[in-house]
Structure formats: C-alpha cells, structure tokens
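Handout, section B. The chain below has 246 residues.
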Amino acid sequence: MLGSMPKRWFLGQITPSSNTVLEPVCARMLADLPHVTPHFARFQVTRIALSGDALKQFDPAPMVGAACQLAEARVNSICWNGTAAGWMGFDQDVRLCEAIKDATGIPACTSVLAFNEVLEKTSVKKFGLVAPYTADVQAAIIRNYAENGWECVSEEHFNDKGNFSFSEYSEERICDAIRHVAAERPEAILIYCTNVRGAFVVERMERELNIPIYDSVSVAVWKSMLTAGLDPRLIRGWGRLFQEVR
C-alpha cells in the first residue's frame, strides 16, 4: 500500500500569454520548498498600450476562465501575476479578486494589490519606478498612485510596447535603471512588470543602494504565499521583502 503524500501547497498564477519571465522566476524562488509549487494558466496578452484594443486584453472573463482552470488543480490561492491595474485603476484588481473567489471559492490576489499592500505595511509614501512601458503608460501608473496617496519621485521607462520584448532587457540594463532612479533617494523602488528580469537583481541592488526594492513577480509570490496560509520568510535570497514584510 502506498504511503500518503506529505502536505503540499499549490500557488496558482494567471499569466499573460507572451510572458517568458514570471514562470521560471516563480519556480526558482520556490525551488528550495519542494512542498510548495507554482502552477500557471495563460490568457492572451501581446502588447501594452492605452488604446481600446490593448486595454480589452484585460477584460475579466478570460482571466476568470484561467482561474477556473487553476481551480481544477486544487490550488490554495490564485494570483493575477500582471500589472495592468497599475494603469487601468486599482479597483479593476479588487473586482477581479472578488470574481475569482465567486467563481472558484479560492482566495485571490494580484501583483498590483500586493505592491500597494507592501507600500502600506512599510509606510512608504515616496517611491521610485522602473518599468519597460511607453511614456503614456508610465504616466498613467504614476497618476494612479498619486491619486491614492503615493508620490513617484523618480522614474525610468524603456518606452517599449512589448509584451514579449520586455523579457529581452538584460539584468545590467535593469540595474542601470535602478541606479538612475535611486539617485533621488526614494523610500523604495518598484520594478513594475512581471516580464522583466527584475527579481534576479533585487538582492544585490538592495545591498549596493541600501534602498528596499520590490519586484512585480516577487510581490506576487509573497502575497500568493500569504493568501495560501504560508510564511514568506521560507524564501531566502530574493531580497528584503520576504524576510521583513508581513
């Protein structure tokens, strides 16, 4: 007779179709926790812009459909691992989490709402922003945060419509952008996109600059663990977030 499996936790991640970064990052973050595994469902996202057709990619129906697929794997939490609410409005992610919970019975979270929770818990009011987006998308993110009480004191964007191309920026290009933004000494720096390689540079840049740096995929995994009832401090080597913010 086969013995029973030890307790396992499954973290569901809703993934943009053209994203090639967040899946390997999630897997590497959780590699030392064999009882915790990420699981992914995709929906179509191919470019980032403020035009109607680009915004329509983030209609909730296909995202809830992806969540329902994840629910079949009996995941413990479901996270929208993307940042569209940054330029479309935070309420969009609040409504999405409610819709996912209604459809699946599983608690939901998002990368953007996780960012905001981290800023609140660490009392950050002035932040720096690194993102690959075009100037108008970046301005919409900054405006959205300003309307909710957070001031962006420095920013750098790569002026790219992506989405696949976001994954092709080197770690050194991201580090240079972080250094540029850090010159204004923000209270924290946000790397705002789940398809850039920001998570890989967080720990060394925090040591270099002595500024907390929060990456989009990192905060998604952090909140996914909390939502599933797990302690994020189990993750080591990926920056201050996991050890210091609860």
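Note. The chain has a mean pLDDT of 96. Compare this with the example in section A.
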